[in-house]
UniProtKB/TrEMBL annotation:
Belongs to the diphosphomevalonate decarboxylase family. Residues 15-182 form the Diphosphomevalonate decarboxylase-like N-terminal domain. Keywords: ATP-binding, Cholesterol biosynthesis, Cholesterol metabolism, Lipid biosynthesis, Lipid metabolism, Lyase, Nucleotide-binding, Steroid biosynthesis, Steroid metabolism, Sterol biosynthesis, Sterol metabolism. This is Diphosphomevalonate decarboxylase.
Amino acid sequence: MAVESKVNRQATCSAPVNIAVIKYWGKRDEKLILPTNSSLSATLDQADLKTTTSVALSSEFDSDRLWLNGKEESITNPRLQNVLQKIRSLASERAQTDEEKAVLDAHVHIVSVNNFPTAAGLASSASGYACMVYTLAQVYGVTDYELSKIARVGSGSACRSMYGGWVAWNMGTRDDGDDSFAEQTHLADHWPGMKILILVVSDRKKGTSSTSGMGTSVRTSELLQHRITEVVPKRMAAIKEAIEARDFAQFGEITMRDSNQFHAVCLDTYPPIFYMNDTSKAVVQMVTQYNTMKGEVKAAYTFDAGPNAVIYAMEDAMAEIASLTSHFFPSTTPDTFFRGTTTAPPAPSAELLSHFTIAQQPEDSLQYGINTQPGPGPQVLTDEECLLDSSGLPK
Ligand code: DP6
């Protein structure tokens, strides 16, 4: 009688957050998560924002289990099931040895944590699914596959977190999604001095999720149809050229126009969706007046499906933006407002302020800022960083 093979494998990896400058908004297939337009993002440095995931696979486990940020969650979520099923069917196509076949019958325990507050409305589903797929691929031995296609069925924007630097998600045209994947257009260090500032808005209201918001936009917004056919294809080409040439003025204008159009599509959705609030709008005005003063686009804002602002600027301009932010958005904890720092930026000079007409915002309209920059893609970590103990439960 054949002895049943016992298997025991594990891996721990980290994956980054990404912020789109050409926005993904709309699906042509909701199950496969196929988009109605291509998009492009910068991957953020994992020193500032990342998800870490450990996966253990063992023939001793009774079922698949998942823990997110210290809490056990149901694993029945259809997107999660789609991801697991895709990884397992890849592994099954390749299984040859008894050990490889035994892996297919074993269950997994998945533990995932973010190094940033999930509640802040930052893109945790992108880094979360990217990390899960990357780690599962190590455990199942399928790392040679184009994994962004599997991350995509977890959450569309997750496919872009599978690479570092500047990343395009090509929408593709096939019904099976085989040509809808992410690809790196430029390395993380391609544009020295590029900085990214995330301004977390103090707003605990639960807004419309991207998934349901974009569904309503696809059904009701005529502007979205124009964006899909006329606007995005040209912008994708133009922004790649601007990044290639390190042309900030071009890059910044396209970034702001694309954010503006995405939020215009939200307003054109019926019933309308509002993601930006008064604080977000004050950030837009601050950046606009800064660029007017400079006579050139030196800083660019972008907003996702929530009120938080993300600002792209080169290092020198970003230093001025930081001091203007502390002036126009006063904080009751100025020394720790910018995460990772213990000193507030210098107050802006009277000369600098004379170019601005916006009003100072109420105290603590912004919760905090995160200074970051483009960074690399997912990483395999050592066993010492494993989030599971030897029995396969969270440490
Ligand atoms: C506004 O990737 O969160 O951030 O595919 O339904 O999971 P699902 O949506 P999601 O949408 C992100 C929308 C966006 C723009 C972007 O990141 O491109």
